[in-house]
Each structure stands twice: as C-alpha cells, then as structure tokens.
Amino acid sequence: MSLDFALQPSSHPASEADRAAALAAPAFGRYFTDHMASAVWTPGEGWHGARVGALEPFSLHPSAAVLHYAQEIFEGLKAYRHADGSVWLFRPEANARRFQRSAARLALPVLDEADFLASVEALVRADEAWVPVPTTEESLYLRPFMFAAEAFLGVRPAERCVYSVIASPAGPYFASGVAGVTLWISSTYTRAAPGGTGDAKCGGNYAASLAAQLEAREHGCDQVLYLDRTGGEGRLEESGTMNLCLVTSSGELLTPGLGTILEGVTRDTVLTLAGKFGLTPVERPVTVEELRAGAADGTITEVFAAGTAAVVTPIVALKSPEHSFTIGDGQPGKQTLALREHLLDIQFGRVPDTHGWMRRVL
Ligand SMILES: Cc1ncc(COP(=O)(O)O)c(C=O)c1O
C-alpha cells in the first residue's frame, strides 16, 4: 500500500517578509522551507508514520548508527515554476530509481518509486510559496534522504531508518556560474574504486571528498576532478558534485562510462540532447593525458560539468601538480552554453517537453 504524506501544517511558518527576503537572494542551501516530509522504517512495520509536518530537528540517541557508520543516502532534484505559475519536477522518477540503487548498496530499506514521488510532491504542495518565480535559474531544491536511526553500536544494517525530504530555494550553485569554473586534478585523493560506493549517492562519499575540496581551494580551483588511478594512466571520473563532459572537434559529446561514477540525471539528459546540437554521444574512458593533449592541439574544444545543482557549468581551466591548462581560449564554449540554455528552457517550460521529462505538481 502506498504511503500517505498528509499535511500537518506548521504552526510557526516563516513570515511573508522573511520568506520574501530568502527568495530575493536564495544562494544555495542557505534557507529552508516551513515543512519536511518524513516516514520511518522498521523490519516489523515496514514504512510507516508518513507525513508532511513542520520542519524540525531530529532527536537522535548518541549511538544512532548513522553517526558512527555513515549508513546514509540522499538525492537532489528541483521544482521549477513556469511562466503560467505552474510548478514542475524534472525527471523525478530517475531520482527515485537512483535512491533505490543507493539504498540497496548501503543496506538501507528500499522506498517504492511511488512513495518517493508522493513525498516530494506533497512537500512541494505544502511549501508552494517557496518555489521561486525565476529571474534567471532560481528553483526549489529538494533533498530526499534516508539514514540509520537505530540506537546501537556494532556494524550491521540498522533496524530503524528514517526517510525525509527537506526543501531549500536555490539560485546559481557557483558564484562564477556561466563564466566558468576551474578544476583541480588531485593526485593525492581518489573518489571511488571498483566495488566501492562511487555509484551510490551516500554521505560518506562526500565526507571523503572534503579534504580534496580543501586542496582544490588551496590551488585556487573551484572543484576537484577525480581520476580513476587503477591501471596507472589516470582516467577521468567526475567532479565533486557533477559529471564531466567533453566536446571534441570531430563533433563528439564525450563522457566517461558508468561504473564508479554517479549516474547523473543531467549527464543522461545531455547525452540524449546531444544530437540536437549536432553532437554524437560517446561514453568511453578518457585519460587525463588525452584531455591535456586535446586541449593543447584543439581536438578537445569544450569541457563542461553536468549536475542538478549546477545545471551545465563550463570548465574553462584545469590544474594539477604537473600541469595548468585552459580549454579553448579559456571562455565558456558555444555548445556548452547552447546545451545549458536548452536544458533550462525545458525545465522552465519555455520549449516543448518532447521527451516527457517534466512532471507537473501544481
Ligand atoms: C558526485 C556527483 N556526480 C554527479 C552528480 C550529478 O548528478 P545529477 O545530474 O543527477 O544531479 C552529482 C549530483 O547529484 C554528484 O553528487
């Protein structure tokens, strides 16, 4: 039976003035809406206690398994307000399915796709006033997550797990945004290995990325580009929160194949849209040396990163302990900007949704 995320309205919602101030300059992940969706799982009862209630802190026993063993997963998707006032989600079914795959990898209980969608939609309905009217690319970022809440010490799957969804109005993810970002190619840290959790969206992956992120900052870069160093030659994987795509002079949209990277919804979307821009989608291993040589001889013309939060973000330069190089003339690429614009046009309902990717909530 499906869960009913019925609304129990908050008794203390933000004032209209506070909400307006947050929506005027939302940044990313700084403000949160009035409500949250939640449900609890135990082996005996399965999923139960579904509701949308006031946003409130969790109360956890100090031995709660998530605090010690990081049994936790999450998702990220957005709700977009269209010009006629309606509110839509972009490919939320893909997030629901990835959440299920992440749950299986982290030995967490699986949530039905229908329940995932119901929880997200119920929260968007409850907090509709928080869905920004876009001036550029503002939207409501939705963060479904699940964690091990059982109180015990010992390494085994928890028998009490909490699922929740919170929401946060979002502006551009990078301050430099479309101007392009610089990536640090770390030789100290890797993100994933075969058989590990690289293809799951679990908190532990991001905890392990923070030292690399600090290293990137120390070198004046915005984000990390991780390599797969098994085999020695250094194959491109992905960035901290985005998949990596290359445009070649022969008209390919080239991206590393799946395996140890996160299967990005945006990655799949741009691969599907490539043909519209005269590009052939190609998934294959790419070494860092191929990227460096291609940037130098002009066979790699553009590089961009793709992800829900950052949409399509131009990568204009890369640095490593050995090299520092720009892509093209160091300016955002034409195809990159065209793909970005088209994707935003689909998400904000400015062009027809020919792939059936948009799901109306309100
Ligand atoms: C490590 C990582 N790679 C790629 C992505 C892009 O995935 P998506 O396009 O589904 O947001 C994300 C963001 O969720 C991420 O955290």
UniProtKB/TrEMBL annotation:
It catalyses: L-isoleucine + 2-oxoglutarate = (S)-3-methyl-2-oxopentanoate + L-glutamate; L-leucine + 2-oxoglutarate = 4-methyl-2-oxopentanoate + L-glutamate; L-valine + 2-oxoglutarate = 3-methyl-2-oxobutanoate + L-glutamate. It holds the Pfam family Aminotran_4. Keywords: Amino-acid biosynthesis, Aminotransferase, Branched-chain amino acid biosynthesis, Pyridoxal phosphate, Transferase. Coiled coil: none annotated. The keyword Electron transport does not apply. It is an enzyme of class 2 (transferase). Pathway: Amino-acid biosynthesis; L-valine biosynthesis; L-valine from pyruvate: step 4/4; Amino-acid biosynthesis; L-leucine biosynthesis; L-leucine from 3-methyl-2-oxobutanoate: step 4/4; Amino-acid biosynthesis; L-isoleucine biosynthesis; L-isoleucine from 2-oxobutanoate: step 4/4. Its cofactor is pyridoxal 5'-phosphate. GO terms for molecular function: branched-chain-amino-acid transaminase activity. InterPro entries: Aminotrans_IV (IPR001544), Aminotransferase-like (IPR036038), B_amino_transII (IPR005786), BCAT-like_C (IPR043132), BCAT-like_N (IPR043131), BCAT_family (IPR033939). It comes from the Bacteria. Its EC number is 2.6.1.42. PANTHER family: BRANCHED-CHAIN-AMINO-ACID AMINOTRANSFERASE (PTHR11825:SF44), SUBGROUP IIII AMINOTRANSFERASE (PTHR11825). Belongs to the class-IV pyridoxal-phosphate-dependent aminotransferase family. This is branched-chain-amino-acid transaminase. It comes from Kitasatospora phosalacinea.
